[in-house]
Amino acid sequence: MKRFLVAVSILGLVMATGLTLAGEKEKCSHATQDCLNKMVKNMKNKGLVGVDGEWDEEIGGMVIKSFIEGTQAEAAGVELGDVLIAVNGIPLADKEASYADAAQRTPGAHAKITVLRDGGKHSFKLALMGLNETQIAKYVGMHMVEHHAAVQLADAD
Question: Does domain 2-156 have CATH number 2.30.42.10?
Answer without folding.
Answer: yes
